[in-house]
Design brief:
about 220 residues; alpha/beta; Rossmann fold; five-stranded parallel sheet; binds P1-(5'-adenosyl)P5-(5'-thymidyl)pentaphosphate
């Protein structure tokens, strides 16, 4: 039982959210955070790239800095995974160890799909670099919010914001991303749960909550 001083604190649950641009990850993370906190859970939200001082600098270079235009795919891969390596050791692993649930807005599946499938890089090499960066810190559950990639981009573009280099690819790139995610979900159906992101935010939130309760029938502590 959580909170008994004579017992070790059970680790938090690690939940990642994946999908192409504008699929609603941040919206669902906000809902789930509120629900978990209402149940008394401690919750940490992370976003990638970023989430540490080093990671935020990498994020700027990867997404917003005009110097990033010259970036080759190998450098892009190493920067995304460098940001994640720092986030895992500085933030995610310590939080899980003290019993905090972690909700990650993107994690290693983003790299597998964007760099390993959509970019012209060797897939097996990307998987190896990915695993090296995170060690044994892997999500317990991943929600893949799946929707038409152009409809998702239209949602994302409707918002004002900084220039994002990663959102300037041709439509085929994002279609490849979508198919790549679905392929991963077929390979790992126990971890990656696919949800139709065209549903209303409220319906999606209910499906996420039900799935989590099915995955952790004895409560959201272990
Ligand atoms: N990347 C990232 C890599 O290439 N490799 C990697 O390893 C990693 C980690 C990150 C970029 O970097 C790439 C992938 C990305 O290109 P980002 O700035 O973090 O980019 O942006 P995204 O992750 O793409 O997220 P977005 O902020 O664009 O979208 P979200 O969080 O999925 O969506 P959200 O919740 O902000 O919603 C978008 C809009 O849709 C509405 C919301 O109100 C909002 O206006 N909305 C809905 N509308 C209708 N129905 C629903 N169900 C809705 N849910 C939300």
């Amino acid at each position: 039982m959580r909170g008994k001083s004579i017992m070790a604190t059970p680790p938090g649950i690690f939940i990642s959210f994946e999908g192409s641009e504008g699929c609603g990850k941040s919206t669902q993370i906000r809902s789930l955070r509120a629900r978990l906190e209402a149940e008394g859970g401690a919750v940490l939200v992370t976003r990638e790239p970023g989430g540490t001082a080093i990671g935020e600098k990498i994020r700027h270079l990867l997404q917003h800095d005009d110097d990033g235009d010259a970036m080759c795919p190998e450098t892009e891969l190493l920067l995304f995974t460098a940001s994640r390596a720092q986030l895992v050791r500085e933030v995610i692993a310590p939080a899980l160890a003290e019993g905090t649930h972690v909700l990650a807005d993107r994690f290693l599946d983003s790299t597998t799909v964007y760099q390993g499938i959509a970019r012209p890089l060797d897939y097996d090499a990307v998987v190896r670099v990915n695993r090296f960066a995170v060690g044994d810190c892997l999500p317990d559950v991943t929600f893949l919010l799946d929707m038409d990639s152009e409809a998702g981009r239209a949602r994302a573009k409707a918002r004002e914001g900084l220039r994002d280099r990663m959102e300037e690819e041709p439509p085929e790139f994002y279609e490849t991303v979508r198919r790549g995610y679905l392929r991963l979900a077929e390979e790992e159906p126990a971890r990656i749960r696919v949800l139709d992101a065209d549903a209303t935010p409220e319906m999606l939130a209910e499906r996420i909550w039900k799935t989590l309760n099915d995955c952790f029938p004895h409560g959201l502590s272990r």
